[in-house]
Every structure is written in C-alpha cells, then in structure tokens.
Structure prediction request, 583 residues.
Amino acid sequence: MAATNAHTPLLGEITCGSLLQKLQDIWDEVGESDEERDKMLLQIEQDCLGVYKRKVEQAAISRAQLLQMLSDAKVELSSLLSALGDKGSAGIPGKTTGTIKEQLAAIAPALELLWKQKEERIKEFSDVQSQIQKICGEIAGTLNINDQTPAVDETELSLKKLDEYQSHLQQLQKEKSDRLHKVLEFVSTVHDLCAVLGMDFFSTVTEVHPSLNDSTGVQSKSISNDTLSRLAKRVVALEEDKKQRLQKLQALASQLIDLWNLMDTTEEERALFKHVTCNIGASVDEVTVPGALALDLIEQAAVEVERLDQLKSSRMKELAFKKQAELEDIYAGAHIEIDPEAARESIMALIGSGNVEPAELLADMDDQISKAKEEAISRKDILDKVEKWMSACEEESWLEDYNRDDNRYNSSRGAHLNLKRAEKARVLVSKIPALVDNLVAKIHIWEEDCGISFTYDGVPLLAMLDEYAILRHEREEEKRRLRDQKKFQDQQSTEQEATFGARSSPAKSTSGKKVVGARANGGTNGTPGRRLSLNASQNGGRSISKDGKRDNTRSVAPVNYVAVSKEDAASHVSSTEPVLVSP
Prediction:
C-alpha cells in the first residue's frame, strides 16, 4: 500500500500530452525526421485505438452476459410461476425498468422465493404420490418395500394439481378402509366358523395370506383383490363344510333318538349326547357354540349309533314282548279275548326271519296298541254298565240269601248293617231290568257301528244277557211255583187240622233251617255265569255270604241250562260250565 501511494502522484501527473511532449523533446535531441515522427505517431494512435476497441468489446460481452442472465432469470421466473400456478405471487416485480443490474437485483429475491416454494411443493407432491403408490400397491397386491419414490413432474406443481392428488389419495384411503373392514369381517367369520367346526384358525387364515395373523397390526393386513377373493372362497368353503357337518350330525341325532325310543333308553344315557341332539332342529346360522360340529364329536355320535344299532337286535325281542304285554293288558282290561301264545310265536318268527325292520315291527305294534286303546275306549261305556249289572246281580244273590235267612231280624251283631244293605239291594235289584234293556240297546248300536259282535271274554254279550233273562224268568216261575205249592200245603194242613185236630207238621220241623244245596232255579239265582268276567274258577267265586262278605270258599257245581228259543245264539255257552252256588 505504501508503494502504491508513493506512485500515485506520479501517475496523476503523467498524461498523454506530457508524454507526447517528452517524446517530441527526445526526437528533437535525437534528430528524428518528420517522416519517422509521423510514422511513430500513427503507430501510437493505432495502438490506442486497439486498446479502446478491446475495452469496448469486453464491455459489450459483459453487457450481453448480463442481458442473457436477465433473460434467463425472466424465463426461469416465468417457468416457476407457470409450474407453481401462482401468477400473482407476492414479491414478484410488476415492472422491469432501470439498468440491467438493477433489473437483475429486483428479480433475484423473487426467484429465491419461488425456488423455495418449488422445493416445498415437490416435497408435498412426493409425499402424496408415495402414499398413492403405496395404497395402489396394497390394493393390487404388488407392494414392495424397496419400491423407489415416484418421480415428481416439476412442470406441474400447482395447488390445483396437488388438490387432485390429495383427493385421489382420500378416495384410495377410503377404499383401503373399506377393504380393511371387509377383510376383518371375513377374518372374524373364519374365526367363528373354525371355532364351531373345531378347526385351527391360525393355520386356516394364514393359508390365505400370512399378514392375516392376529400378531400383525391391522394396517399391515393384506387388502388386495386376491386376498379378498381367497377369503371369500374360504368362507364359502367353511360354510358349506358347516352345512354338511350339521346335516350329518342331525341325521345321527335323529338315528340316536329313534334308537333311544326304540330301546326305551333312560334319560341319564340320553343326557350324555345332549350336545348332539340339541341341534337336531337348528338351522345353520343358529349353531354357534364352539366345537358343536367338530369332527371328533360327529365321530363319537356315529360310534354310538353303530353301538346302539348292534345292541338293537339283541333287545328287539325284549321290546317286542314288552309291547305285546301292554297290548294284552289293554285287551284284558277291555275283556277282549286274544291268543297271546300265537302272537308271541308270530313275533319270534318275524324277528328270526330278519325280513322286517325292528322299527317297522315296533311301529306296527304301536299301531295295534293305539287301535286297541281306541277299541277299549269305544267299549268302555258298555263295560261300565256290565260291571254295574254284575254288581247288581251279586247284590241280588246276596239279597236272596238274606231273605231265606229266618234269623235275619234277630238282635245279633251286625244285623242292622245287613238290614241297611238289604234296603239298598232291593232298590238296586229293582233297576236291573232297565239296566239290562239299556245295555242291550247300547250293544246293538255298537255292533251296528262296528259291524262285529260285542264279546265279553270271548262270549257274545247279547247271548249272556239273553241267558240271564231266561234264568231270571225261570227263577220267577220257580218262586211262583213254590208259593203256589206252599199255599196248597198250608190249605191241606188247615183242612187236616179241622178234621183231625192240630198236630205237628213235618214241614214245620225243618222250616227254621236253611236248605243247603243247589237252588231250584239252577243254582245261579239269576246271576251271570263265570263267563260274565266273574271268573269263578280263577278268583274262587264271587258269591256273597250272609254277613255281607265275599265267600271265596263256595263250591262250584255243574248245572244244566234250560233250552230256550235263543238256543242257537247262546249255544257257545257250555251246559256243563261251573257256576257259583250259594248255600
């Protein structure tokens, strides 16, 4: 700096004129000719002109560069404005006046601002496009973590374009949410179906896609078309499997119930398979209990059906005989005569032949039992009246014995009870004719409706009633004959007493004693025979003693029935059949 300052005054004093003067002085001393002097001055002028020319050229180049810079800046400004779509952004110069450098200085801040906005827009576009690319890859099932970030078109960075990308992204996000919701629904359905079917949910769902495992996050699950399609197919396959298993289980449950009913299985044994039979009437959607359609449960039911089916053959005889006994009880209660031995032999023959299904045999026997019950119900009214008739006949027999007892009015113990019973018996006996007539009318109506004869323990009931009516008539005739005979004897005794005087009568010596043996009316006293369900030979007789108690030690004696006009109708009643004989 000191050296520069030292030469500065010299430079300031040196001018072109002083240098030319000094050059003239040198030429004068040297003695240069005018021609040489003019030649050298011309050379000096040319050198100066060259210097000026170079300087002008340099200045022109610099101006051109500045103009180019200004033009480039304007073009860049225009392109940025066009790319950003912000024609009237703040900080952009409205006019381009002044020197070139002034114009460049005015444009530079605007360019810097637009470059900054462009960088921010590029980042925003890149983020949106990356999300769009990711979701599209998830939907298409082609997502790759190593995929490069999509290139951003820097010529189109307007807010309008950014809004379009963002709107597209929102649509994709909504579609992703819907797909994810559908995937979760499918997974939940697969889980429920696997629980009901007793299958492994983890292996089933990961076969569709590994990301469907519960351990992965919700947002990480596959939502591709292929995953949705495979999930839908898996749900359909599981539902079809569930339907087939339910049908098989219901068929097994139905077989179990039929076998249980067939073999009269106890409730305790049935309760062991309640989890099988509880779904016999359920629809596919109603079966939701975990393990309700597991293969081992179905296999367990199948094994039980097979076991019961094998046991069924061995128990068929027992069950059939049990139903036959029930049928015989119904017929016995209805006083219908059947051949139980023949029926049992027929059952044994059917079971042994194997030509009939056990269920069909038992169903046929159930039909027979049902028909027998219906027949018993249709006979009940008549049988009730038959019982009343028999009871009345017993009371009639007792009353006859009571009337023949000469000591019935003494003051013995229980005499007043017999007296009351006799009064009731007379009222009951007086109703027997009407009871018989009513019974006969009902029997006729029943036989007309059914088209068969009404039998009582194998004997036509009408024939019994006709026989009873005949015996009752014979008894009345016998009573009338005895009364006439007694009257005649009394008249003869009176005449003898008048002629020969009073004397003891042989008849009177035995009048106070009760006659023992068969009665004059055939020993039945109008009471129905053994075939009127009295079953004397089995029950020991049903005659009544004087003290009102049944005497089961009465003897049974044969009796010959009197021939009647309806002998053909009652010909099946044996003339030697034992009847009850009262003393």
